[in-house]
Write a structure and sequence with these properties.
This protein is α+β, with helices and mostly antiparallel strands and about 850 residues long. Helix content is about 20%, strand content about 30%. The chain has five domains: about 180 residues, no CATH class; about 190 residues, DNA ligase/mRNA capping enzyme (D-amino Acid Aminotransferase, Chain A, domain 1); about 120 residues, OB fold (Dihydrolipoamide Acetyltransferase, E2P) (Beta Barrel), CATH 2.40.50.140; about 110 residues, DNA primase, PRIM domain, CATH 3.90.920; about 160 residues, DNA primase, PRIM domain, CATH 3.90.920.10.
Length: about 850
C-alpha cells in the first residue's frame, strides 16, 4: 500500500508527524489505534494496520458501542505504522493542524484476507484494546462523495452497550489549556457502572472455591496465583494400556500458563516469559470466564491445532498473517484460594470441564478418552494431529518431565525414490543423508526431503559406493525449496526405493523428523508411479474418486442465501453435492478463489483466495505472489473440501488456469465475451461462434459455456501446458484481431466508455493468478444462476447467459449423464504451431463489409 498521498500532504520540516520512510517493526501482530484529533473539525482518526501501513478513516463522532448506531467513517490516506505512537500538536497552517491524542490502541484480527474484505467493501474484525473490544464492522456505502464513505458499527456481543467514545475520555490527554468536561467524566463513570450491572445480571459470578475444596488432595492457599512450571511428557513408543490412563490429543502450538489474579489475566510461556501482550484475544476470553483467581494450563494454537497449523500460528504471531488463535485448556492448578496441584488428574479435568461448560469464544476444553488408548491415537491421527498425550488418571500435577504424562506420536511409513545424497560431516563416513523424492505425475519427481538417521555404518558405506557411480551436480527431481545444503549435494537417477518413518510434512512440504525404516530391494521407483495417480489423470471425472461428504457438518442450514427465490444454505449444499462429480475436475489441484457470502447473495460478499483457519479439508498450498512474497492458497482435492467451503458460505468457485504444482504453466485459455448493456443476446451467440471459427482456423478446438451472468466463455484446453507470457500474448493478439475485424461490434479494451453497443473480448483472465468462474459454479446473483458448459449445437437454443440455475442444472445433468464437453482434458494442442497462423490472421484482418443495424 502506498504512502505517496501521505507524503504529498505534509512538510516534515514543519510538522512533528513521523515521515513515511521509517522501517516497520518486524515480528509484531497487526495493531490498531484510535486518535482524538482536534483539527478544524474535531473528530476521531480510526486506523488499522493492513500490511505495512495504517488504513485510516476519519470518524466525526467516534466509535459507538451501540450496535444500532452506525457511524460515518470517511476513508483518508494511508499512514505509516509509526503514526500509532504519535501524540502532540500539528502546527496551524499545516495539513490537519491541531492536537492529536491517543484514545485507544491494541491488536486486531480478522478471519480471512483483510485486503480482500476491504476491496469488497465489508470488513469484519475484532479489536483487543483497553476500551475497544469485541467484534466490529466497516461497510462501504455507495453515496457519492469526494472520499470513499464507510459505516463503522459494533457487533452484538458481550462488549456492546449504550456507550459512546466521548464517554471514555477521562484518560485522554486534552489540548493545551483545556480539560475534560465534567459531564464526560460523569458519563464515563455512569456508563461503567451500568455496564458492570448489566454484565453481572447477564452472567452472575459463580464462586468455585467450595466446589474445588471437595477434590481429593485439594488444600487452601493464601498464595496469589502466578506462574507455575509446567508438567512435561516423556516420549514413548507404545500407548499405555488400561483404565488407569486418560488420553488427550497432542496439540501443535505453544504451551501457555494462564494466571488470573483479581480478574486480571497474565499469560506465561513454559520458560516464564510473559506473553500477555502477544495474545490479547485469549486474555479477553479468560477475563470473560469471570474467575477471581485461577492458574490454568493449556496450548495456544491456530486453526485446528494440527501439525500443519503450527506454521500458521508462527506467521500470525510474527505479524505475517492474521489468523484466529485459540487457547486449548487441559488442566487447572488453582482456583479461588484452593490449590489443586495435589488432586488427581481426572478430578482436576472434571472441574475444568464444569468451568468451561459454556466457554467464551477462543477457549476450548481438551476432552479425553479413558482407557482405549489405541483408539484415541487412531482418532488423533485421522484429525491430522501428531499424536496423543497419555496421563495417569490418579496422578497429581508435578513440574518437569516425569512418567505420569507420556507423549505418543504416530510415525507414518512411506516409500520414496532415492534421488541423491549429501556429503558426510564430522566423524560420519560414507554419506550424510539420502535425498528423497515422490512421484510428480508426468513431470517426473518432486523433492520430498532428506533422511540421515536409521542407517548403520555398513549401510552408509555400501550406499556411498553404489550412489557415487553416475552422480552429478544437477538435480534429478523438481526442487521447490531453498535449502543451502542442496547446493553441494550430488544427484542420481532414481533406482532405489527407501521406506521412511516420518511425522508428517512441514510448511514447505518436506518430511518432518524422517528416519530410514528400510531399503525396499524388492521395489523399483517405477512401482511408486504405478501406485499413485498422476496429476493429469485427475482431470477426468470417470477416474476420480472423492472423499465422503458425511464428515462435513452444515451449520445454519435454514439460512436464506438467495432472498429473491428463498433458496437456503441447505439447498446450496445439496446442489454442490449433486454436481460434485462434474465440478471437481474443474477445481482439483488448482489454486482457487471463492466468493463468500456469509449473509447471503443479497448482502455484501467478498473474494477469498488465501487459506484461513478452521478449514480442515481444504489444502493450503504456498505460492509465490507479486513482489516475491509467498502465501497459502486454497486448493480443493475432493468432495469434502468442496463442501467445507460451502459450509464457509462460499457460493462461487474461480480456479486458476494452471495447477498448483505448476503455477507458471497455463493449461487453458478463456475468452470472456462480455456484452455492453445494449447488446442483444443473439449477437453474443454470433460472437462465440466467430471466436470458435477463428480458433479452428488456427488449429485449436474450443468449448463454450454460459457465464451465469450476461455473457459466454469460450475455453481452449492446452496440453502440454504453456508459459503464461506466451498464453497472455496469444490471447491479447487474438482479441485485438477480433476487434480489428469489426470495430463496431467488438472491443479489446476494458474501458467502459468504449464498450457501448459492443462486446468486450476479455482476454485478461489469461495471466498468472487470474481466475475465471468454473463450470457448474453458482453465481451470487438473483435466481441462483449457474455457469453451464454447452455443446456447440445447443448454443442457438439458449436464451441468455443465466439460462441455467440451481434447480435446473441437476435435471439437465441427470438427462445428459455425460459432460457436454466430453473428454476435453485429453485433447492435445498447444500454441507452438499457431504463432505463424495468428500473424497471418492479424495481417489479413479488415473490417467486415456487413454492418449490423442497431437501434
Amino acid at each position: 500500500m502506498s504512502l505517496q498521498e501521505y507524503r504529498r500532504k505534509r512538510r516534515f520540516d514543519r510538522t512533528p508527524e513521523p515521515d513515511a520512510d521509517a522501517p516497520r517493526g518486524r515480528g509484531k501482530r497487526p495493531i490498531f489505534v484510535v486518535q482524538l484529533h482536534h483539527a478544524s473539525r474535531r473528530h476521531y482518526d480510526f486506523r488499522l494496520q493492513v500490511g505495512d501501513t495504517l488504513k485510516s478513516w476519519a470518524v466525526p463522532k467516534g466509535p459507538s458501542f451501540d450496535p444500532d448506531v452506525k457511524r460515518l467513517a470517511a476513508e483518508v490516506e494511508d499512514h505509516p505504522i509509526d503514526y500509532a505512537q504519535f501524540e502532540g500538536e500539528i502546527p496551524k497552517g499545516q495539513y490537519g493542524g491541531g492536537h492529536v491524542a491517543t484514545f485507544d490502541r491494541g491488536l486486531w484480527s480478522t478471519d480471512g484476507d483483510a485486503e480482500a474484505q476491504l476491496a469488497k467493501g465489508h470488513l469484519r474484525f475484532r479489536m483487543f484494546g483497553d476500551k475497544l473490544k469485541g467484534g466490529w464492522h466497516l461497510v462501504r456505502t455507495h453515496a457519492p462523495a469526494r472520499q470513499p464513505q464507510w459505516l463503522l458499527f459494533k457487533e452484538r456481543d458481550d462488549f456492546a452497550g449504550p456507550r459512546e467514545a466521548d464517554d471514555l475520555l477521562e484518560d485522554v490527554t486534552p489540548p493545551p489549556g483545556t480539560r475534560p468536561a465534567r459531564r464526560r467524566r460523569a458519563a464515563a463513570k455512569a456508563g461503567a457502572r451500568a455496564a458492570s450491572r448489566a454484565q453481572q445480571a447477564a452472567a452472575p459470578r459463580e464462586r468455585w472455591a467450595h466446589r474445588a475444596a471437595r477434590l481429593d488432595g485439594a488444600r487452601a492457599t493464601s498464595k496469589h496465583p502466578g506462574f507455575r512450571a509446567p508438567q512435561l511428557a516423556k516420549l514413548q513408543q507404545e500407548v499405555p494400556a488400561g483404565d488407569d490412563w486418560l488420553h488427550e490429543a497432542k496439540w501443535d502450538g505453544y504451551r501457555l500458563i494462564a494466571e488470573i489474579r483479581r480478574g486480571r489475566v497474565r499469560l506465561w510461556s513454559r520458560n516464564e516469559r510473559e506473553w500477555t501482550s502477544q495474545a490479547p484475544e485469549i486474555v479477553s476470553a479468560l477475563e470473560a470466564l469471570d474467575l477471581d483467581e485461577a492458574v490454568l494450563d493449556g496450548e495456544l494454537v491456530a486453526g485446528a491445532g494440527r501439525q500443519e497449523d503450527f506454521g500458521l500460528l508462527q506467521a500470525t504471531l510474527a505479524g505475517e498473517k492474521n489468523a484466529t488463535l485459540s487457547y486449548v485448556l487441559f488442566d487447572i492448578l488453582q482456583v479461588d484460594g484452593v490449590d489443586l496441584s495435589g488432586s488427581p488428574q481426572y478430578q482436576r479435568k472434571a472441574l475444568l470441564a464444569e468451568i468451561l461448560k459454556s466457554p467464551p469464544d477462543r477457549l476450548v476444553y481438551s476432552s479425553h478418552i479413558v482407557g482405549r488408548g489405541d483408539e484415541a491415537l487412531k482418532m488423533a491421527i485421522e484429525r491430522g494431529l501428531e499424536g496423543i498425550i497419555s496421563k495417569r488418571a490418579d496422578a497429581p500435577y508435578h513440574a518437569g518431565r516425569g512418567d505420569a504424562w507420556r507423549k505418543i506420536k504416530q510415525r507414518d511409513a512411506e516409500e520414496f525414490a532415492v534421488v541423491g545424497f549429501t556429503a558426510p560431516k564430522g566423524r560420519r563416513a560414507g554419506l550424510g543423508a539420502l535425498l528423497l523424492a515422490a512421484p510428480d505425475g508426468a513431470r517426473g519427481w518432486r523433492y520430498a526431503g532428506r533422511v540421515g538417521t536409521g542407517m548403520s555404518d555398513a549401510l552408509l558405506d555400501s550406499l556411498a559406493k553404489q550412489l557415487a557411480k553416475g552422480a552429478r551436480a544437477t538435480p534429478t527431481a523438481r526442487v521447490d525449496v531453498d535449502d543451502p545444503e542442496l547446493r553441494r549435494a550430488r544427484w542420481v537417477v532414481p533406482r532405489l526405493v527407501a521406506e521412511v518413518f516420518h511425522h508428517g510434512r512441514g510448511n514447505q512440504g518436506l518430511l518432518r523428523q524422517p528416519a530410514l525404516k528400510t531399503l525396499r530391494r524388492d521395489k523399483r521407483p517405477a512401482d511408486l508411479r504405478e501406485a499413485r495417480p498422476s496429476a493429469g489423470d485427475a482431470a477426468m471425472p470417470a477416474t476420480r474418486t472423492h472423499a465422503p461428504s458425511a464428515t462435513i457438518e452444515l451449520t445454519h442450514p435454514g439460512r436464506v442465501v438467495f432472498p429473491d427465490s428463498g433458496i437456503t444454505k441447505q439447498q446450496v449444499f445439496d446442489y454442490y453435492r449433486a454436481v460434485a462429480r462434474w465440478l471437481l475436475p474443474e477445481l482439483d489441484g488448482r489454486p482457487l478463489s471463492v466468493v463468500r457470502c456469509p449473509q447471503g447473495a443479497g448482502r455484501p460478499c467478498f473474494f477469498q483466495k488465501h487459506h484461513t483457519v478452521g478449514m480442515d479439508r481444504v489444502e493450503a498450498v504456498p505460492l509465490e505472489e507479486e513482489g516475491g512474497t509467498r502465501a497459502d492458497y486454497l486448493v480443493v482435492r475432493d468432495e469434502a473440501g468442496l463442501l467445507e467451503l460451502v459450509q464457509f458460505n462460499a457460493l462461487e468457485f474461480h480456479p486458476w488456469g494452471a495447477r498448483a504444482d505448476a503455477p507458471d504453466l497455463a493449461d487453458r485459455i478463456v475468452f470472456d465475451l462480455d456484452p455492453g448493456p445494449d447488446v442483444a443476446w443473439p449477437r453474443v451467440v454470433e460472437a462465440a461462434r466467430l471466436v470458435r471459427k477463428r480458433l479452428r482456423a488456427l488449429g485449436l478446438t474450443s468449448f463454450v459455456r454460459t457465464s451465469g451472468g450476461k455473457g459466454l466463455h469460450v475455453v481452449v484446453p492446452l496440453k502440454p501446458p504453456c508459459p503464461w507470457l506466451q498464453v497472455k500474448a496469444f490471447a491479447h493478439a487474438f482479441a485485438d484481431a477480433m476487434a480489428a475485424s469489426d470495430p463496431l461490434a467488438y472491443v479489446a479494451t476494458a474501458t467502459k466508455k468504449f464498450r457501448k453497443g459492443r462486446i468486450f473480448i476479455d482476454y485478461l483472465r489469461n495471466g498468472r493468478g487470474a481466475t475465471s468462474v468454473a463450470s457448474f459454479s453458482l453465481r451470487a446473483r438473483e435466481g441462483a444462476p449457474v455457469a453451464m458448459p454447452l455443446r456447440w449445437e445447443e448454443l442457438g437454443r439458449i436464451k441468455g447467459g443465466d439460462a441455467y440455475t440451481l434447480t435446473s442444472t441437476p435435471r439437465r445433468m441427470g438427462r445428459l449423464r455425460a459432460h457436454p464437453w466430453g473428454d476435453y482434458g485429453r485433447r492435445r494442442q498447444d500454441l507452438a504451431s499457431v504463432s505463424k497462423a495468428l500473424s497471418a490472421l492479424e495481417e489479413s484482418s479488415v473490417p467486415e463489409k456487413r454492418r449490423r443495424k442497431r437501434s
